[in-house]
Amino acid sequence: xxxxxxxxxxxxxxxxLATAAPAPAAIAAQVLSGAPAAANARVADFGYSxxxxxxxxxxxxxxxxxxxxxxxxxxxxxxxTPNASQADRSNNCQMHISVTCDPGWEFTLKPHSTKxxxxxxxxxxxxxxxxxxxxxxxxxxxxxxxxYSFDGPLNxxxxxxxxxxxxxxxxxxxxxxxxxxxxxxALTGDSRSAxxxxxxxGDADDGNGKNANFVPWRAFEWSRC
Length: 225
Known about the structure:
This protein is mainly β. The chain has strands at about 10, 15, 30, 40-50, 60-65, 70-75, 75-80, 90-100, 105-110, 115-120, 125-135, 140-150, 155, 160, 175-190, 195-205, 220-225. The protein has one domain (about 10-225). The protein is elongated. InterPro entries: DUF4360. Pfam families: DUF4360.
């Protein structure tokens, strides 16, 4: 496999469609799949932004396997060569997931519930970093961070558990909240000589090239409060 591969990843929250397919950057209130029926959980809104997923970059499509609409993006990639710009070495995608539920319920992230696959191709002296931060806008100081680092030389497709274990994830509080998920991939090393790339390209569970786990809707864990 060369420095890059052309794959796709998918963003979605796992909602059961109640209306026609929405615009990818704003989703009307719809039932959230996988939540307890008693929680009456709904996606009130969904937005995305960032160098890795600028506005208008999503393509929506209905997935019959989960009875839900997904927004697809080409990939989330960072690369480094002697001629690459600083912007090429780091890309991010920040998602705003507004979820409402009955006041007696709250949600958080369940560790080891979803996985992603990356293609990491690094020369000597290059390091690739994968970062995800989770927080609720109502309590932004309570942030959980998942971090993976890979050192060259390396050409591999590692599995990334995210949400990762052994991390204390924030809770929404009763009635839901606005969860902010910011994923970033970056390359570091001597810009005069080090070369490499990192690309998220699929779900680790089935190995396909569309990443349904990029938005961690299957990782939501519900409890009464």
